[in-house]
Write a structure and sequence with these properties.
Blueprint: H1 2-5, E1 13-16, H2 46-53, E2 69-74, H3 83-92, E3 97-102, H4 115-130
Parallel strand pairs: 1-2, 2-3
């Protein structure tokens, strides 16, 4: 979200299984993740809750991102960050991006399932950025 809020200042964005994306997904038949404001309105006016959730939804900032992005999603993370919500964000990003699909990963790094992201982030992306080099985006 920050890379979309400050598109002229961000040089790269790295996101490991970002939650709170695509809050209005149920309106188009997709799952929404944590904090699931769409259906959990706690006695509040649902229309107001839905509209307000847009202010916190990374999907509404993704199209403004200008820097390279490394993003990962877990195929077994339906409760907190459904793959469809993260892909909805990624599809809005027009800058160079690399999407890592963590096939056996849920929300936690069970049995090292998030290592592909950690490897790209800590051994490739961050060292390059620290040296002032461009992000090594694999497309």
């Amino acid at each position: 979200m920050l890379a979309g809020l400050c598109p002229n200042d961000a040089t790269a964005a790295l996101a490991l299984v970002p939650a709170a994306s695509d809050m209005l997904a149920p309106e188009v038949g997709r799952a929404t993740g944590f904090p699931n404001w769409y259906s959990n309105t706690n006695g509040k006016d649902p229309k107001k809750v839905h509209e307000t959730s847009r202010y916190y939804d990374p999907a509404n900032f993704a199209s403004r991102i200008k820097c390279p992005v490394l993003i990962a999603l877990g195929l077994h993370d339906e409760q907190l960050a459904p793959p469809s919500s993260i892909l909805a964000d990624a599809n809005e990003i027009t800058s160079p991006k690399e999407v890592i699909i963590l096939a056996n990963s849920g929300h936690q790094n069970v049995n090292g399932s998030q290592e592909p992201f950690f490897h790209r982030a800590y051994y490739d992306w961050l060292p390059a950025l620290k040296e002032g080099k461009p992000a090594p985006v694999k497309q």
